[in-house]
Amino acid sequence: MESVSDIDWSTWTPTEVSALLFVIRGGQILLIRKKRGLGAGKINAPGGRLDPGETPLQAALRETKEEVGVAALGVREWGELRFQFTDGYKLLCHVFAAYGCEGDAIETDEALPLWTPLHAIPYDEMWADDRLWLPLMLAGRRFSLVSIFDGDRMVDVKIDAHDPADVLFRYLKELGIETETVAHPPVFTVEAAKALRVNHDGLHVKNLFLRNKKGAMWLVSVQEDRVVDLRGLGERLGAGNLSFCSADRLRKHLGVQPGSVTPLAVIHDRDHQVKVAIDASLVGNRGHKVLCHPMTNDRTTSIRDEDLIRFLVSTGHQPVVLNFDQSSS
Ligand SMILES: Nc1[nH]c(=O)nc2c1ncn2[C@H]1C[C@H](O)[C@@H](COP(=O)(O)OP(=O)(O)OP(=O)(O)O)O1
After folding, report:
1. CA of 187 to the centre of ligand 1 (A)
2. Chain center to CA of 104
3. Per-residue pLDDT of the chain in tens (329 residues, 90 and over written 9)
4. According to its UniProt record, which protein family does this protein belong to (predicted)?
5. Distance 37 CA to ligand 1 centre (A)
């Protein structure tokens, strides 16, 4: 058994089913140093096998509570991992991410919690397959992996990932809009993006996804270095008090993960619940290129400013153009 193509995965039935849960909060991810069980000594996420009658989600939540004492919030499933071991054992693992938690992570007999910056995930100390799919999950892509392991040596692997940028690129093509896209490791902050910057000619965008008390939503795109005063912005938009939308709202209305907000994400807002405001300096100078993520933060797309406006209008999001140079907001 050398190759994943030797196995008929459609009839493959796991010996056991397990779940893994990664809590992601404030630019950090909650990992554990596992003390016992399969993969003891490695760094992984809280998780384990399902108890009888449990769903994968219930197991993920229970194991996270048992292993590091936190209650995960805002959980969603991102992928499935199928491990065929050469000794015949078969493990199916459901992978979840949570976007918040209650309680402080504590050390238990099973695990040492490690809050880890998203840019410093220690793949060398993790299972060999993790470096293939964890970046996909962080970039907001669903994945499905099949693999063969001999002990903890990965013999073969194949991964399928759904790309949330597919719909966007197809649509831009239909509009006849040409863009250029450069791939890079996932970035979660303007600073991280700057550090990874490659030969981009254009203006980088910072995006704020905001709501008022009544739940009306605005996607505001400004030049990356602007300091935006939300109070002044709320007044100028006639929105009243503005605050940042939750990650759940972001996923629901714009179809992207925190860190991947982009003006291009309005393609997901088919019922036009989100209003768009844009910094005049991004679009007021015909011929400029605007640089933003194509739904995921592992790529940067360059689009001409007039094409960005055309795209926004075509999706039903005529933007409000705001001059930030003449105002504190
Ligand atoms: N290649 C791999 N990559 C990965 O990221 N996690 C893996 C993995 N192979 C196994 N795991 C994880 C998935 C699951 O959470 C865990 C299963 O280990 P165990 O069966 O030892 O369960 P635990 O001891 O954690 O919990 P219990 O089921 O409560 O005993 O190991």
Report:
1. 28
2. 23
3. 789 999 999 999 999 999 999 999 888 999 999 999 999 999 999 999 999 999 999 999 999 999 999 999 988 899 999 999 999 999 999 999 998 899 999 999 999 999 999 999 999 999 999 999 999 888 778 899 999 999 999 999 999 998 889 999 999 999 999 999 887 767 777 777 777 666 568 999 999 999 999 999 999 999 999 999 999 999 999 999 999 999 999 999 999 988 899 999 999 999 999 999 999 999 977 788 999 999 988 889 999 999 999 999 999 999 999 998 865 44
4. Belongs to the PRORSD1 family.
5. 7
Ligand 1 atom 16: residue of nearest CA: 48
Which residue type, as a one-letter code, is found at position 211?
Answer: R
129 lines ligand 1 (CB under 6 A): yes
- 127 close to ligand 1 (CB < 6 Angstrom): yes
Sequence-separated (6 or more) residues with CB below 8 Å from residue 15: 88, 89, 90, 91
Residue type, 179: T
Among protein residues, the one whose CA lies closest to atom 26 of ligand 1: 48
User: How much is the ipTM here?
Assistant: 0.92
The number of residues in the chain equals 329
Which residues in 248-266 are b (16+ Cβ under 10 Å) and which e? ebbbebbbbbbbbbbbbbb
Instruction: Give residue 174 CA to ligand 1 midpoint distance, Å.
Output: 45
Atom of ligand 1 nearest to the CA of 37: 21
14 Cβ inside 6 Å of ligand 1: no
Q: Which residues contact 6 (CB under 8 A, 6 or more apart)?
A: none
Ligand 1 within 6 A of CB of 38: yes
